[in-house]
Structure formats: C-alpha cells, structure tokens
Amino acid sequence: MGQSFGGFCTISYLSKHPEGLEEAFLCGGLAPIGKGPDEVYQRTYRKLAQRNEAYYNKFVEDIERVKLIVKHLFNHSVTLPSGGTLSVSRFRALGMAFGAHDVVLRASHDLHLHNFITRPTLSLIDSFLPFDDNVLYAVLHEACYLQGEASRWSADRVMQSFPRFQVDEPGTGKNDPFIYFTGEMIYKSMFEDFAELRKLREAAELIAENDDWPELYDEEQLQNNEVPVYAVTYIDDMYVDYDLAQTTASKIKKCKHFITNVMYHNGLGSKSDEVMKQLFALRDDVID
C-alpha cells in the first residue's frame, strides 16, 4: 500500500520489480509520470489558490487576522522555541495542511492582548510542520519528480508566475483581498527558517542543481503490467493533481480507479474505513 509518495514508490516498483508485488493499493499516490516539478507546481498552485479561497470563505474573519500576523512578522524578528525563525514564508507554509485556523486565532489573539506572539502559540507553530524531524522530506521533495533534469528550486521559480502568491507588508494594498497560504512546496528560505534544515543548506543546494537523476518509471512495463492495482484519487487534492493522476491511471494496465470529491489528500488517515471499503470493493469486484 502506498500513500502519497508511497504510491510513487509503488509505481516505480511496478516498473522495475513487478515480480515482488502481488497487488498494489494507492491512496492519493498516482505519480505524474513523465512530468517534472515545474508542470506539477503550475497545476498545484492553481488548486492551492482554490483551497485558499475556500478557507477564507469558511473563516472570513481570518482575512484580517492573517494580515495582522503577517504585518507583525514583517516588522519583528520572531524566534521559535526550536531556534528556527517564524518568517512570513514559514507562517504561510502552514497552509500545507489547511488546519491552521486555530493557530491564526491564537496568534492574532496574542497580538491583540500582548502585541507579541506568546511561547505556547510559538510552540504550536513550531510543531505544525514536520521538517525539523523529517529533514529528508524537505531535502528530497522536488527530487521525487526528477528524471534527467535539475529542480533549481522549482517551487520558488514557478511561484513567480502566480502574482496572487506574492506577499507585501499589509497596508500597502497589494495583498487584497487576502494573503495566500502556500502548500506542499519546499522553498529555499526553509533552509534558513528551520533550525535543523540550516545544517543542510549546502547539501540542499547541490541537490537542487543536480541533473543526474535516473528514470523513475518504465512506461512500457506499466502498459504491460499484470499486477492488480487499486487506486483512489481525490478531485480536490492540492498535493497530487487530479488530471495528471487520471493520465497515470490510464497508463497502468490492470489499474482500477476510485475517484471522490468528499475527501482530501489525507483521506486514508481521516476516513480510513471509507477509503479501504472502496479499495476492497474494487479488488473484490463487488461495485455492481
């Protein structure tokens, strides 16, 4: 079973060592075969913009709360308990899970009461993103899309073509109607903002410039695949693009596909009973 990147790995196994697999279950893990990070991010930034709009439609008062927090971060250097830095970029990265409403509420409350963000809130923010504990996640994230090319900090470069994701100090009029959060993108600034990632800045730079990446998938082998594959794809997934996932599913022989718009990328964790029920229904051929 492969969730997200685990699905990417599973498709690579299907390409190179199918004899080691009896069957495969993929959850939000249909890799964008043949697509580099630039094209992936072009698509996921657009989906991320939709998720931002949905977030602010749900939590309308967070529009001004987020602007208050960002203005504070523009004008103050804020150190987290881990030794990392709460920059504007790191704060916006809380959009990776879009469960940041409680953080926004607490941080804005702190600023209204104390004019600074309190340690309990900073500790919460510190633990929100996994990169200090899972450094390889950050270092190799863009590499998981690479075949014979360099990423050259793809997420940073592609973001330049999306003006709505540019941010200026609130009050200049350039952030209307609201400030966009970012998502599952790795930025060069993270290797300054996260204490553990700072130690890996040089390594990350070398990896970002490396273009000697091997082929990840064998499309001919996948077209002749004999291992049963059961996949779930989430229409509103902001991590794995729906259209690219559809294309990949069509390239894998014996791939059965369940598609839903009532779950997000974390469906296996948040609604595991429903996801597994649907996958086993595909396997047991009992849908009809």
Outline the fold blueprint.
Layout lengths: L1 E2 L1 H12 L7 E4 L9 H22 L3 H14 L12 H5 L8 H14 L4 H10 L6 H5 L14 H6 L30 H4 L1 H4 L2 H9 L9 H5 L5 E6 L7 H10 L3 E6 L6 H4 L1 H13 L4
Helix pairs in contact: 3-5, 5-6
What separation lies between the terminal Cα atoms?
24 Å
Q: Mind summarizing the main beta sheet?
A: 4 strands, parallel
Order of helices and strands: EHEHHHHHHHHHHHEHEHH
* Strands, count: 4
Mean residue pLDDT: 94
Low-confidence stretches: none
Please tell me what the overall shape is: globular
In DSSP terms (H or I, runs of 4 or more residues), the helix count works out at 15
Rg calculated over all Cα atoms: 20 Å
Q: What structural category characterises the helix and strand content?
A: alpha/beta
Lateral strand order in the biggest sheet: 1-2-3-4
Note the beta-strand portion.
5-15%
- Indicate the percent of residues in helices: 40-55%
What does this structure look like?
The chain has 288 residues and is of the alpha/beta class. The protein is built from 15 helices and 4 strands. It has helices at 5-16, 37-58, 62-75, 88-92, 101-114, 119-128, 135-139, 154-159, 190-193, 195-198, 201-209, 219-223, 242-251, 267-270, 272-284, and strands spanning 2-3, 24-27, 229-234, 255-260. It is globular, with a radius of gyration of 20 Å. The chain starts with a strand and ends with a helix.
Compact summary:
The chain is 48% helix and 6% strand. It has 15 helices and 4 strands.
